[in-house]
Recover the amino acids of this structure.
């Protein structure tokens, strides 16, 4: 991976990580996403609802993607630091 891509991945990961610690993220999850998820799950319990299933899968995928990008960003930041250390020596 080139240095520019590593730095970009690191910045994206840090931005998303900062988002998770921001007060607005908790509101987004607790007040918007979780109620949608809960309603979709309730529909699935009542009957097989393909729209509800798609909603649940979409929410799970979004949360997983955020977590994946944060983890990639942490790895990229460490790789970038190691490269900087090599050039300092």
């Amino acid at each position: 991976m080139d240095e520019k891509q590593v730095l970009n991945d690191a910045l994206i990961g840090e931005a998303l990580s900062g988002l998770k610690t921001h007060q607005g993220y908790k509101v987004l999850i607790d007040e918007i996403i979780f109620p949608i998820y809960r309603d979709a799950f309730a529909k699935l319990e009542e009957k097989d609802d393909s729209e509800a299933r798609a909603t649940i899968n979409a929410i799970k995928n979004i949360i997983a993607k955020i977590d994946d990008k944060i983890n990639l960003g942490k790895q990229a930041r460490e790789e970038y630091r190691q490269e900087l250390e090599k050039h300092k020596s």
Remarks:
- The chain has a mean pLDDT of 92.
